Amino acid sequence: SDLCRILSFSLSSVCVPSSLSTDDNMGDNHTFLYFAYGSNLLKERLQLKNPSATVHCVARLKDYKLVFGNHKGLASDRWHGGVATIEHSPGDEVWGVVWRMNVSDLESLDSQENVTLGAYSPVELLVKTKGQDLNCRTYIMNSCVYAPPSPQYLKVIVMGAEQNGLPKDYQEKLRAIKTNMYEGPLPMMAELERARRRAKEKVNHRSNDA
Protein backbone atom coordinates (compact mmCIF):
# COMPACT_ATOMS: atom_id res chain seq x y z
CA SER A 1 0.00 0.00 0.00
CA ASP A 2 1.04 3.65 -0.33
CA LEU A 3 1.03 3.99 3.46
CA CYS A 4 3.31 1.00 3.76
CA ARG A 5 5.76 2.48 1.28
CA ILE A 6 5.75 5.80 3.12
CA LEU A 7 6.45 4.19 6.47
CA SER A 8 9.03 1.66 5.33
CA PHE A 9 12.59 1.90 4.12
CA SER A 10 15.77 -0.12 3.99
CA LEU A 11 17.42 -1.00 7.30
CA SER A 12 19.43 -3.88 8.71
CA SER A 13 17.55 -5.78 11.32
CA VAL A 14 17.81 -8.62 13.77
CA CYS A 15 15.62 -11.50 14.64
CA VAL A 16 14.91 -13.57 17.69
CA PRO A 17 14.64 -17.34 17.89
CA SER A 18 11.60 -19.01 19.37
CA SER A 19 14.05 -21.32 21.10
CA LEU A 20 16.95 -19.30 22.41
CA SER A 21 20.31 -19.76 20.69
CA THR A 22 23.14 -19.13 23.10
CA ASP A 23 26.34 -17.61 21.82
CA ASP A 24 28.14 -20.81 20.88
CA ASN A 25 30.51 -18.89 18.59
CA MET A 26 32.15 -17.41 21.67
CA GLY A 27 31.99 -20.60 23.72
CA ASP A 28 29.59 -18.92 26.13
CA ASN A 29 26.33 -20.62 27.06
CA HIS A 30 25.33 -17.85 29.46
CA THR A 31 24.91 -15.07 26.90
CA PHE A 32 23.04 -14.56 23.64
CA LEU A 33 23.18 -12.07 20.77
CA TYR A 34 20.22 -9.74 20.22
CA PHE A 35 19.88 -7.57 17.13
CA ALA A 36 18.04 -4.29 17.83
CA TYR A 37 16.61 -2.06 15.11
CA GLY A 38 14.18 0.23 16.97
CA SER A 39 14.31 2.09 20.27
CA ASN A 40 16.71 -0.53 21.67
CA LEU A 41 19.41 0.91 19.43
CA LEU A 42 19.88 3.38 22.29
CA LYS A 43 21.97 1.92 25.10
CA GLU A 44 20.15 3.77 27.86
CA ARG A 45 16.79 2.50 26.59
CA LEU A 46 17.81 -1.15 26.46
CA GLN A 47 19.67 -1.04 29.77
CA LEU A 48 16.67 0.33 31.68
CA LYS A 49 15.49 -3.25 32.22
CA ASN A 50 18.37 -5.22 30.69
CA PRO A 51 21.53 -4.09 32.49
CA SER A 52 23.76 -6.82 31.07
CA ALA A 53 23.51 -5.52 27.48
CA THR A 54 26.84 -4.55 25.91
CA VAL A 55 27.53 -3.59 22.30
CA HIS A 56 28.92 -6.46 20.24
CA CYS A 57 28.89 -4.84 16.78
CA VAL A 58 26.86 -3.03 14.14
CA ALA A 59 25.22 -5.36 11.61
CA ARG A 60 22.98 -5.49 8.56
CA LEU A 61 19.97 -7.68 7.88
CA LYS A 62 19.40 -8.40 4.20
CA ASP A 63 16.00 -8.72 2.52
CA TYR A 64 14.05 -7.02 5.30
CA LYS A 65 12.74 -3.49 5.76
CA LEU A 66 11.80 -1.36 8.74
CA VAL A 67 8.14 -0.42 9.17
CA PHE A 68 6.08 1.18 11.92
CA GLY A 69 2.73 0.10 13.28
CA ASN A 70 0.78 -1.34 16.19
CA HIS A 71 -0.27 -4.87 17.10
CA LYS A 72 -3.87 -5.23 15.85
CA GLY A 73 -4.00 -1.45 15.57
CA LEU A 74 -3.78 -0.95 19.35
CA ALA A 75 -1.81 2.27 19.85
CA SER A 76 1.19 2.15 22.17
CA ASP A 77 0.53 3.80 25.54
CA ARG A 78 4.28 4.00 26.04
CA TRP A 79 5.11 5.76 22.77
CA HIS A 80 1.79 7.22 21.51
CA GLY A 81 2.23 6.06 17.93
CA GLY A 82 3.46 3.26 15.74
CA VAL A 83 6.48 1.30 16.92
CA ALA A 84 9.18 -0.42 14.91
CA THR A 85 9.05 -3.87 13.40
CA ILE A 86 10.55 -5.54 10.36
CA GLU A 87 9.06 -7.43 7.46
CA HIS A 88 10.51 -9.52 4.66
CA SER A 89 11.30 -7.44 1.58
CA PRO A 90 13.68 -8.86 -1.06
CA GLY A 91 16.43 -6.40 -1.97
CA ASP A 92 16.01 -4.21 1.10
CA GLU A 93 18.14 -4.19 4.24
CA VAL A 94 17.95 -3.04 7.85
CA TRP A 95 20.84 -1.73 9.92
CA GLY A 96 21.01 -2.31 13.64
CA VAL A 97 23.11 -3.08 16.69
CA VAL A 98 24.01 -6.56 17.95
CA TRP A 99 23.99 -6.62 21.74
CA ARG A 100 25.52 -9.35 23.87
CA MET A 101 23.20 -10.08 26.80
CA ASN A 102 23.07 -12.45 29.74
CA VAL A 103 20.44 -15.17 29.53
CA SER A 104 19.18 -13.83 32.87
CA ASP A 105 17.88 -10.74 31.01
CA LEU A 106 15.88 -12.77 28.49
CA GLU A 107 12.65 -12.67 30.50
CA SER A 108 12.76 -8.88 30.86
CA LEU A 109 13.57 -8.44 27.16
CA ASP A 110 10.61 -10.64 26.19
CA SER A 111 8.43 -8.66 28.59
CA GLN A 112 9.51 -5.37 27.03
CA GLU A 113 8.49 -6.74 23.64
CA ASN A 114 5.12 -7.96 25.01
CA VAL A 115 5.77 -11.52 23.86
CA THR A 116 3.33 -13.08 26.34
CA LEU A 117 0.59 -10.74 25.07
CA GLY A 118 1.26 -11.87 21.51
CA ALA A 119 2.34 -8.45 20.26
CA TYR A 120 5.77 -9.63 19.09
CA SER A 121 7.26 -13.03 18.35
CA PRO A 122 10.92 -13.92 18.92
CA VAL A 123 12.77 -15.11 15.83
CA GLU A 124 16.33 -15.91 14.85
CA LEU A 125 17.88 -14.33 11.77
CA LEU A 126 21.31 -14.21 10.20
CA VAL A 127 22.84 -10.73 10.17
CA LYS A 128 25.99 -9.61 8.39
CA THR A 129 28.96 -7.83 9.96
CA LYS A 130 32.34 -6.91 8.48
CA GLY A 131 33.98 -10.14 9.53
CA GLN A 132 31.25 -12.75 9.84
CA ASP A 133 27.58 -13.68 9.81
CA LEU A 134 25.84 -13.95 13.17
CA ASN A 135 22.69 -15.73 14.30
CA CYS A 136 20.83 -13.21 16.43
CA ARG A 137 17.62 -13.03 18.37
CA THR A 138 15.14 -10.32 17.44
CA TYR A 139 11.40 -9.65 17.49
CA ILE A 140 8.77 -9.25 14.77
CA MET A 141 5.34 -7.73 15.39
CA ASN A 142 2.26 -9.88 14.91
CA SER A 143 -0.86 -8.54 13.16
CA CYS A 144 0.82 -5.22 12.40
CA VAL A 145 -1.43 -2.32 11.39
CA TYR A 146 0.75 0.42 9.89
CA ALA A 147 0.90 3.73 11.77
CA PRO A 148 3.50 6.52 11.91
CA PRO A 149 5.70 6.84 15.02
CA SER A 150 5.61 9.70 17.48
CA PRO A 151 8.42 12.27 17.12
CA GLN A 152 9.75 11.21 20.52
CA TYR A 153 9.97 7.54 19.58
CA LEU A 154 11.73 8.38 16.33
CA LYS A 155 14.14 10.62 18.25
CA VAL A 156 15.17 7.67 20.45
CA ILE A 157 15.86 5.54 17.36
CA VAL A 158 17.90 8.33 15.74
CA MET A 159 19.88 8.89 18.95
CA GLY A 160 20.66 5.17 19.08
CA ALA A 161 21.78 5.16 15.45
CA GLU A 162 24.09 8.12 16.13
CA GLN A 163 25.39 6.64 19.38
CA ASN A 164 26.48 3.43 17.66
CA GLY A 165 27.74 4.89 14.39
CA LEU A 166 25.25 3.36 11.97
CA PRO A 167 25.90 4.37 8.34
CA LYS A 168 25.30 8.07 7.70
CA ASP A 169 22.91 7.48 4.83
CA TYR A 170 20.89 5.17 7.04
CA GLN A 171 20.74 7.82 9.75
CA GLU A 172 19.42 10.30 7.18
CA LYS A 173 16.69 7.86 6.17
CA LEU A 174 15.69 7.55 9.81
CA ARG A 175 15.49 11.31 10.24
CA ALA A 176 13.30 11.58 7.13
CA ILE A 177 10.57 9.28 8.49
CA LYS A 178 7.21 11.05 8.84
CA THR A 179 5.79 11.13 12.37
CA ASN A 180 2.30 11.60 13.80
CA MET A 181 3.35 14.98 15.29
CA TYR A 182 2.30 13.96 18.82
CA GLU A 183 3.23 16.74 21.27
CA GLY A 184 1.84 15.42 24.56
CA PRO A 185 3.75 14.13 27.59
CA LEU A 186 5.76 10.93 27.34
CA PRO A 187 7.00 9.61 30.72
CA MET A 188 9.39 7.24 28.97
CA MET A 189 11.32 10.19 27.51
CA ALA A 190 11.80 11.71 30.96
CA GLU A 191 13.05 8.36 32.24
CA LEU A 192 15.53 8.09 29.37
CA GLU A 193 16.80 11.63 29.92
CA ARG A 194 17.48 10.79 33.57
CA ALA A 195 19.32 7.63 32.53
CA ARG A 196 21.43 9.56 30.02
CA ARG A 197 22.31 12.19 32.64
CA ARG A 198 23.37 9.49 35.10
CA ALA A 199 25.54 7.85 32.44
CA LYS A 200 27.17 11.18 31.60
CA GLU A 201 27.83 11.89 35.28
CA LYS A 202 29.53 8.50 35.65
CA VAL A 203 31.81 9.23 32.70
CA ASN A 204 32.70 12.65 34.11
CA HIS A 205 33.34 11.15 37.54
CA ARG A 206 35.68 8.52 36.10
CA SER A 207 37.58 11.12 34.06
CA ASN A 208 37.98 13.31 37.15
CA ASP A 209 39.35 10.35 39.11
CA ALA A 210 41.83 9.45 36.38
From TrEMBL:
<dbReference type="Pfam" id="PF13772">
    <property type="entry name" value="AIG2_2"/>
</dbReference>
<keyword id="KW-0456">Lyase</keyword>
<feature type="binding site">
    <location>
        <begin position="34"/>
        <end position="39"/>
    </location>
    <ligand>
        <name>substrate</name>
    </ligand>
</feature>
<dbReference type="InterPro" id="IPR017939">
    <property type="entry name" value="G-Glutamylcylcotransferase"/>
</dbReference>
<protein>
    <submittedName>
        <fullName>Gamma-glutamylcyclotransferase b</fullName>
    </submittedName>
</protein>
<dbReference type="GO" id="GO:0003839">
    <property type="term" value="F:gamma-glutamylcyclotransferase activity"/>
</dbReference>
<feature type="active site" description="Proton acceptor">
    <location>
        <position position="113"/>
    </location>
</feature>
<dbReference type="InterPro" id="IPR013024">
    <property type="entry name" value="GGCT-like"/>
</dbReference>
<dbReference type="InterPro" id="IPR036568">
    <property type="entry name" value="GGCT-like_sf"/>
</dbReference>
<feature type="binding site">
    <location>
        <position position="153"/>
    </location>
    <ligand>
        <name>substrate</name>
    </ligand>
</feature>
